[in-house]
Amino acid sequence: MRRPYLRSAVAAVGLMAISAASAPAQTIYPERLIKMIVPAPAGGQTDVMARLMTQKMQQALAQTVIIDNRAGAGGALAARAAAAAEPDGYTLFYGNTSTLAVIPAVSKNPGYDPAKNYAPVASVSESYMILVVHPTFPAATLQEFLAYARAHPGKLNYAHAGAGNVTHLAGEMLRTFAQVDFVDVAHKGGNESVQGVLGKQVDFALESPVILLPLIKEGKLRALAVTSAERQAEIPDVPTMVESGMTGFVATLLTGVVAPAGTPPAIIGKLNSAINDTLTAPDMKELLVRFGSQARIGSPQEFASFLGSERRKWADVARQAGVSLD
Cα separation of 151 and 181, whole Å? Predict the structure, then answer.
């Protein structure tokens, strides 16, 4: 009487065995080395921040995370390499404002599309720019500066770190918001453009705090406004652009991690958690402050929304200014 039951049970076990054999093996991520592509040479601000972060990610993920420095073309070479990588969580990209928003805004064919080729993982940091003039410039506030610019249309020179650079677009943003005319002068990087202001070859610049803060504190440059939404603790007496009458003028410098589009959500979530944990470490916070930045902790969805708004903003600025590198 029990033989039909036994035959059914044996058949069921056999089917389970076949099913188990045919199912793909389940692995625990990460099971091998992870590569973080960085769009800058070793030793610079971007590289230093990425290295400390990856060192701490290794502890959280119990796996080796290495840096792959790929400088060139303003970061576009690294961005293309990351976009073409397998979406398996083993190649990540430490992007910034230039690679994730500005380059696609000023180039018709950058070789990658951040909106289509990347899956946002986690925001890392947010910084700002400072509008500076030489201490002898006849303006102590942004309002006085703009009044002088309007009284001398096309006479002021503006230094930026190269055509299509975020500092170039920030100047064009100022031109549009304030309705003033000036001449932009391209330089080979932020340090060179700041030297131009110090030597009075140019009248003003918008640059990052990591370059400008020491010079401002030494009295070698005068800060007129910051481009962040709020005043900064390092220079609390310097107002924001918005406070100075430029309604809506907020320009931040972001960094964050993205993965190739199609990377599984579970892997994205695990990486997001690991990166967020690193940003709470005391030495990471200290490094960010030293670079004039602050941690930006959030979900992949929040980072995606922020990146979308940044891409739209800089695309609008580039279009209105007619800035194109093609």
Answer: 10
Report the alpha-carbon distance of residue 96 to residue 100 in Å, rounded: 6
Which pair of tokens denotes residue 256? Answer: 């964050």
Query: Any residues with CB less than 8 A from the CB of 129 and at least 6 apart, and which?
Result: 167, 170, 206, 207, 208, 209, 226, 227, 251, 253
Nearest-angstrom CA–CA distance, 266 and 269: 5
Q: What is d(CA 263, CA 245) in angstroms, rounded to the nearest whole number?
A: 44
Q: Which domains does the chain have, with CATH numbers?
A: 34-126+253-321 (3.40.190.150), 130-226 (3.40.190.10)
Split at pLDDT 50, 70, 90, the class of 26 is low
Q: What would the mean pLDDT of 16-24 be, rounded to a whole number?
A: 41
**Which amino acid type is present at position 157?**
N
241: closest CA among 229, 232, 254? Answer: 229
CA distance 263 to 119: 7
pTM for this entry: 0.87
Amino acid at site 191: N
For residue 3, give the amino acid letter. Answer: R
Total Cβ atoms within 10 A of residue 42: 11
Q: What is the mean pLDDT of the chain?
A: 91
Distance of CA 195 to the CA centre of its chain: 25
From CA 234, how far away is CA 230, in angstroms rounded? 12
57-105, pLDDT tens digit by residue?
999 999 999 999 999 888 999 999 999 999 999 999 999 999 999 999 9
Strand order from edge to edge, sheet including 130-133: 183-186, 157-160, 204-207, 130-133, 222-226
Task: Report the sign of the C-alpha dihedral through residues 145, 150, 151, 152, in that order.
Answer: positive
